[in-house]
């Protein structure tokens, strides 16, 4: 957490607001740029092919369900897949594919495969 | 994600706010028009038979439970039925019928049928 | 969904805000009047014996837990009892009794009875 | 629900806002005074030994987790312990002790004891 | 809960707002200083190596998931680990490590170990 003068002077631009389907998220530019091929990196990088509409609070608007967004953002933050038991993994897969985060897609698919094998073992007992 | 000039110039009208029973959702006009026979398409299309009241934030008001709305909106976004384990499928069916989304009604009914068959197998063991 | 002129002109009074223990709900006057004997019908009908305080947003204040309110409101909307698996049915019963919705009280009691019989079968296996 | 003139004239002071760890709750003075020995009764009674800070919305600030607060408030409202299945009973016990509600502490402890006995039966099968 | 004059005069600075990934929390300076080695104590102590950005409401901004923050804050409040059944313990571990709360890291690791041993017993039956 070393801080040089440049990063302090640009700290105003450090924080990004996202409005995902009506739910507000706040994160850092650094987190969103973690996977340069993702739609999120392209969104804040001003990719000319992506419309970057903002809401009245200056949050980038994304037409997706905010309920499945935390595992996406957390993966960019710390590189792991964390899934709460109530949340449908298929919903997270759908988002990982939408945001085009290749490594996360693989992780969620492996998770679903393991889960289905366990269920199938229980069913055959 | 090709963008022509026309869609950029109309980007202000691209986003729609919905107030579903007190919970705010934000989505695109394109998503709501996906199923032209649905009540949602008719709502934003200014169907003369549907009252389109808006709240103080300009959100269309719908007198339904917002808790069951995400699977509805997600189906219009990506065409799949995703159900979190805690949410009653019967609640989603009720909404799919209210919003008159024929394909989704079929999907939820199939889901409930599969679920009840599995439960019945467990009960008979 | 036929709309006559009178209902359009009174559309401003159509929507009611409720502040249930700090959580905001929005619904229609029509929904709240569904069960004329309920406390909710009496609340918006200006029943002289019920204090109808409103918060700073014009929402009727009710000193109850908003977490158990959705099944109450949904029953008035579509006449069915829908219970998510995480929510304690006893909590909904408590509210159905508070709001004095006779038919719903019966439905929740039947639900609890069925649930307890199933649990008892599992315990005796 | 009889209302005399005095209670109407003091209805402005009837409602109390609580900010529990960042989550807003709204309840009545009457509810908070139910258990006169509780910290909540002392808080709004202006107990000289308790600092009663308020946030910018006039809500009393309490440095606790708002997630475990609903069962506390509901107990004061209707005298029963209602626990949703996802919520850790230990979390509610911690709060019942913090707010010093003797009867509720007993109820939660009995609930935990019953739960642990059932689990232990399942483990020994 | 003894209060001397000094603490009353500084009560304005007693309360701290945190914006954790878009979710607002409110707590006391005292709670955040409980573990002096934690990142949270360093954050509000004005540690020169930590950028302390604030949002428009004066809340310290932290680029983490607010969903896993309650067990962190509660541990600082009362010293116990309380985990709701739906929440992934791995998500809490990730946060305990990020905030550098040594004792909590140990508690969560022990919890995960116990949980995995129980699951493994069930799998081998």
What would you note in describing this structure?
Five copies of one chain form a homopentamer. The first copy, chain A, is α+β, with helices and mostly antiparallel strands and 125 residues long. Chain A is built from six helices and three strands; from the N terminus they run αββααβααα. A three-stranded mixed beta sheet of chain A has the order 2-1-3. Chain A starts with a helix and ends with a helix. Chains in contact: A-B, A-E, B-C, C-D, D-E. Chains A and B meet through helix 5 of A and strand 2 and helix 4 of B.
What's the end-to-end separation of chain A, in Å?
52 Å
Main β sheet profile of chain A: 3 strands, mixed
Helix content of chain A: 40-55%
Helical stretch count of chain A? 6
What is the subunit organization of this protein? homopentamer
Strand content of chain A: 5-15%
Features:
homopentamer; three-stranded mixed β-sheet; 3 strands; disordered N terminus; 46% helix; 125 residues; elongated; alpha+beta
């Amino acid at each position: 957490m070393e801080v040089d003068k440049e990063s302090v002077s640009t700290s105003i631009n450090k924080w990004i607001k996202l409005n995902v389907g009506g739910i507000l998220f706040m994160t850092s530019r650094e987190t969103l740029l973690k996977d340069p091929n993702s739609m999120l990196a392209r969104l804040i990088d001003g990719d000319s092919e992506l419309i970057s509409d903002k809401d009245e609070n200056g949050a980038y608007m994304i037409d997706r369900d905010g309920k499945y967004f935390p595992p996406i953002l957390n993966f960019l933050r710390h590189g792991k897949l964390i899934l709460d038991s109530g949340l449908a993994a298929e919903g997270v897969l759908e988002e990982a594919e939408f945001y085009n985060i290749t490594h996360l897609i693989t992780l969620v698919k492996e998770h679903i495969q393991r889960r289905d094998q366990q269920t199938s073992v229980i069913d055959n007992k």
